[in-house]
Sequence to fold (254 residues):
Amino acid sequence: MLDWNGRAVPVARSKGGVKAVSHSYDNLIRTGISAWPPPEIVQKLYKSRQSRAFDGKELEIATSGLGYYCDLQSLHSEDAITWSVFGTIARSPQNILETWLRDLFRLIDLPDSHTDNAEIFLWRRIPHPDTLVPGGPEIDVGITTSNTVILAEAKWLSGIGAAQGKAKDKDQIQLRGEFLAKYGAGIFPDRPHKVVLGISLLPNAFKDITPKGVSLRTTSWQHLSTLPSHPLVDELTRYVEWKMLNSKMTRKSG
Fold:
């Protein structure tokens, strides 16, 4: 199969019809990243239980790159597109990052959010909002500036995880909102704007049940990939279109 840049890459197909490249790196934008792989990607290169979805020749292809199958290989991977959009801009010079954040804040209607002292991080865990134990929810994307903190939940075709929390009665958006509502003032005392951001390919993927003092914003990968200030906007546009074309779009789970 040809990738978003027209390069031929080996592809396996699962028993359910989901496509996966033979090596995780073939599912990630790497343009401009000189030190490869970055630590964020290395931590995601774990062996997946989803290898059981492949058999025979397809399993051989799926395990030929790393010697095992990794979730980053799937064209349904939310982590792969999260890196390709946010990981690349996070490594851009500060002035480019802040210009892109101005576009992002306009897109998601945060007119009072500043972009100075901006930082983006991927896949960090926060203390659990119900118990404060370590190893709580994994934040797909975190964005902090001088007056704003954003915790983002990234989806592709999957739905929001429910049965979360100590009593299994909350969802992923609610947990992130509760963390900011309960502890945001103490942890981020100089950032009055506290936001949970939902990103998905599917419309209406998120329900606003964030607590008082926390805002929910939503957007799509299609909109994010075409923000003109991203230095890789042309490649990102091709990448998202490629993923959409090759994803099993009737599927509602990742």
In short: Residues 25 and 162 are 31 Å apart (CA to CA). The chain has a mean pLDDT of 93.
